[in-house]
Amino acid sequence: MNEYDKPMPIVTDLNRPHWEAAKEHRFVIQKCSDCGHVWFPPMSICNVCLSDRIEWVDSKGTGKVHSFIVYHQAWLPGWLKVTPYNVAIIELDEGPRFVNNIVGIENDDIQVDMPVRVVFEDVTSDTTIPRFTPLTA
Amino acid sequence: MALESVLGRVNIVGIGATRQGKLPEYSADDIAVLAFREALRDSGLQKSDIDGLLVQRSYGDAGDIKEIGHRLGLEPVVGDSVGHHGEAVHKAAMLVASGMCKYVAVVYGTNQRTNRNRFGRNVYHMGGNFDEVYGLSNPGATAAFNYRRRMADFGATEEQLGAIAVAQSKGASLNPLAVYRDALTIDEYMDQRYVIAPLRIVDFCMVSDGGFAMIFTSPERARDLPKPGPTIVGMGAQASFLELDHPRAMYHPSQLPNAKMLWDNTDVKHEDVDALYVQDAYTPNVFSALENYGFCEFGTAHEWAQGGRIELGGELPVNVHGGQNRFSYMVGWHNTYDAVTQLRNEAMERERQVPDANTIMVTVSTGHWQSTWSMIYRNER
After folding, report:
1. Does a structural domain hold residue A5?
2. Chain A residues with CB-CB distance to B197 below 8 A
3. ipTM of this predicted complex?
4. Contact B154, B300 (CB under 8 A)
5. Residues B353-370, buried b or exposed e (16+ Cβ, 10 A)?
6. How many Cβ atoms sit within 10 Å of the Cβ of residue B127?
7. Between A and B, how many CB-CB pairs are < 8 A?
């Protein structure tokens, strides 16, 4: 059994463009058409100028590890059997911070401020989950 | 100076606690009522004197003001729900100082241990289920992120973090109300299992049942009561909602502006503070508070707190009741309760009295580095 058994994305009208782009191996974030603020995860209204004129834009997919932690206990289905696993706060070069995972490196070798880039894991035939890996990998 | 209409004009005249830990024989609302009863007895007031009631909502839809108000048989001028202990104290103070109410009771009761609150989910939860897709769960993750960043920014070590759990466990060993009373050594700390590295199991709050209540009135009315003090002489507030978008997201950002309001509006100086109580849902919060409130320089708390400095008998005893890993998970309510106990010299019999305690500071925050309230309580004689 190699079926992906961790929680799958719950696709909503708000986040659908992100998950659809991931299938095309693009990492998209949101941008305010009025004030230029960029952010991720998605919100339907800009929280700087309160405009609802929002567009999705391609991120370069590069950034840094702002911080990271290692779970030795798991509360979510599918994650228990992969403990210890990492969760990182990624800070994109464009600015947004969000949680993700670092792959392609041992947990003990991850470092704060390490440069990373997005990679795409096609977990099922119709779902792709972006994760991050050291820029040098 | 601002806040002069409140500071010096409100006393805490009654405190009440239930047993802590596991109270399966009581509902959360029963526990709230029992805590109120203890505070009322302590104050010497009659139930009918209470004309303000603020109740903190608790796990499982408990703590509804209408339910608690009915259970207490009260018809107060003001009866309201609040979200947090800090909000309860601040609003009680404002109600008394404004003259809207004469005697305000604030109450919290929970049976979340009996009801098995697991705290598994919901950390950031914005824009979809990104948290669970990426394995993020348990609000303690935020403190683990904080301490990892501190390790990288300032060379802090896991052993240095252990100073907090060690200090608090020593305090708990003397606290008759504490749920866990075994004192830890630093070696025993290092042998604890990781939950979310770099944090170990004893860096996390427990989940426990219990309740606390306090009663506030004016200093003039307090003089006629058996236990008239202490007085609120400092207050700071700051809400925060930006989470990871805040530039200082890793270091409890709401505490900095909170500290400025607190110190700008009180005659109390850092060196006057005889003990500090910090909301320590996770131990790294203590380091953030020591720095953000100016007890030591930013980036040094993990060194400053070593060598018994934050223990009973040290320069600045912190959370001498044992904190939320050892005493009880009471989201700040235990802090004001123990601060008043210390200021009344009522901790003497257990050899856990802070010597000559006259001025005590309490800071409490909601989770995820969000909103913070601070208070300074002082005996005015």
Report:
1. no
2. 69-72, 84
3. 0.97
4. yes
5. bbeebbbbbbbbbbbbbb
6. 18
7. 107
Domain region containing A100: 16-134
Would strands B11-17 and A115-124 be described as parallel, antiparallel, or unpaired? unpaired
**The tokens of B255 are what?**
């505490």
- If one counts the domains in chain A, the total is 1
By Cβ distance, the residue of B123, B127, B148 closest to A14 is: B127
Across the interface, whether the CB atoms of A42 and B128 are under 8 A apart is answered yes
Give the one of B130, B136, B244 whose C-beta lies nearest to A97's C-beta.
B244
Q: Which helix (H) or strand (E) holds B151?
A: helix B140-154
> At B32, phi and psi to the nearest 5?
-60, -45
Interface of B with A (CB under 8 A): 118, 120-121, 123-124, 126-138, 141, 144-146, 148-149, 151-153, 193-199, 244-245, 249-250
**Minimum distance, in Å, between the CA of residue A24 and any CA atom of chain B:** 19
pLDDT in tens, chain B (381 residues): 589 999 999 999 999 999 999 999 999 999 999 999 999 999 999 999 999 999 999 888 899 999 999 999 999 999 999 999 999 999 999 999 999 999 999 999 999 999 887 766 667 767 889 999 999 999 999 999 999 999 999 999 999 999 999 999 999 999 999 999 999 999 999 999 999 999 999 999 999 999 999 999 999 999 999 999 999 999 999 999 988 999 999 999 999 999 999 999 999 999 999 999 999 899 999 999 999 999 999 999 999 999 999 999 999 999 999 999 999 999 999 999 999 999 999 997 778 999 999 999 999 988 766 799 999 999 997
| Domains, chain B, ordered by start | 11-117+208-222 (3.40.47.10), 136-201+230-378 (3.40.47.10)
